[in-house]
Design goal:
One of its GO terms (cellular component) is cytosol. GO terms for molecular function: glyoxylate reductase (NADPH) activity; hydroxypyruvate reductase (NADH) activity; NAD binding. This protein is α/β, with parallel strands linked by helices. The protein is built from 12 helices and 13 strands. The longest helix has 20 residues. It is elongated. The protein binds 3-hydroxypyruvic acid (3PY). The site of 3-hydroxypyruvic acid (3PY) has 7 residues, from loops.
Length: about 325
């Protein structure tokens, strides 16, 4: 039997990552060779005795999984920038090193955020549907009017790399002002986009477009709620490409259905997938995408390669390219 470290990969990850692992000659690899998530029972069985685990964001890595893996598990590598699916306390307790994939997806996520913002504010999905289903009668002066970016104020909730990249892409649309809020001011990032730090209430009150770009943590859970939406302008657009958990969806539904805000574009929801009979799907002013912000071939390949390299470095005891310091 080989004495190489055993690694379990919980999904058919894009080819670059798999190739790096296979060619390394450094690990014995086992893979859940499917596009669908590994069943929990199978995961609990397969992690037993592994040295390394490469997962994606649909796998909840908690005490149960870590107990099932046992003391051999030294490295966890997630193919995601988000890590709300990982029980960090449990990982820290067991001294398991954790790799993740920031930066390589910033461009793709920012690009999709802009696309979703425009699709929502200029009502593209509704308009395409009307054109296709006979609703297009004649050119009408106010029909399918939306809201434009020129001269607007764009608010960013949680200013990190992705928020900066979104603002950089929106600037050429003649946005007048960028504002942001976070747990504390981020002067270096803010300077890159000339964004002004404001309170959460001012962010809500002043934004014409408000983009949630924050990580999901206990502090940001449901932070976009009745309080936020009721402070927003009736003409404002809310966009979320971070995590569904930052939004109270009942409050968002109310805000959209009663015209408290003009529209919402969501790439992330709770749960995922959002059931097709969910009330949010009944609203014309809500555009919902199936968590595709990072879904370009280039980016997903880069994420898988980084996740693979993180895992191998961790198993060698070297510095990872991107490690979460617990
Ligand atoms: O990497 C992540 O955290 C994602 O949400 C996938 O884009």
């Amino acid at each position: 039997m080989s004495s190489l470290p055993r690694v379990y990969v919980t999904r058919k990850v894009p080819p670059d990552g798999l190739q790096i692992l296979r060619k390394s000659g450094q690990v014995q690899l086992e893979l859940w060779d499917s596009d669908d998530p590994v069943p929990r029972r199978e995961l609990l069985k397969k992690v037993k005795g592994c040295d390394g685990l490469l997962c994606v964001l649909t796998e909840k890595i908690d005490a149960e999984v870590l107990d099932a893996a046992g003391p051999t598990l030294k490295v966890l590598s997630t193919m995601s920038v988000g890590f709300d699916h990982l029980s960090l306390d449990e990982l820290k307790k067991r001294r398991i090193r954790v790799g993740y994939t920031p930066e390589v997806l910033t461009d793709a996520v920012a690009e999709l955020t802009v696309a979703l913002l425009l699709a929502t504010s200029r009502r593209l999905i509704e308009a395409a549907h009307e054109a296709k289903t006979g609703g297009w009668g004649t050119w009408r002066t106010q029909w399918l009017c939306g809201y434009e970016l020129a001269n607007s104020t764009v608010g960013i909730l949680g200013l990190g790399r992705i928020g900066v990249a979104i603002a950089e892409r929106l600037k050429p649309f003649k946005v007048k002002r960028f504002i942001y809020t976070d747990v504390e001011p981020r002067p270096e990032l803010a300077e890159m986009i000339q964004a002004e730090y404001v309170s959460m209430d001012d962010l809500a009150r002043q934004s014409d477009f408000l983009a949630a770009c924050c990580a999901l943590t206990p502090e940001t859970q449901s932070i976009c709620n009745k309080n936020l939406f009721s402070n927003m302008k009736k003409t404002s657009i809310f966009i979320n490409t971070s995590r569904g958990g930052v939004v109270n969806q009942e409050d968002l539904y109310e805000a959209l259905a009663t015209g408290e805000i003009a529209g919402a574009g969501l790439d992330v929801t709770t749960p995922e997938p959002l059931p097709t009979n969910h009330p949010l799907f009944t609203l014309k002013n809500c555009v919902i995408l199936p968590h595709i912000a990072s879904a370009s071939y280039t980016t997903r390949n880069a994420m898988s390669a980084l996740a693979a390299n993180n895992l191998l470095a961790g198993l060698r005891g070297d510095r990872m390219l991107k490690e979460l310091h617990l």
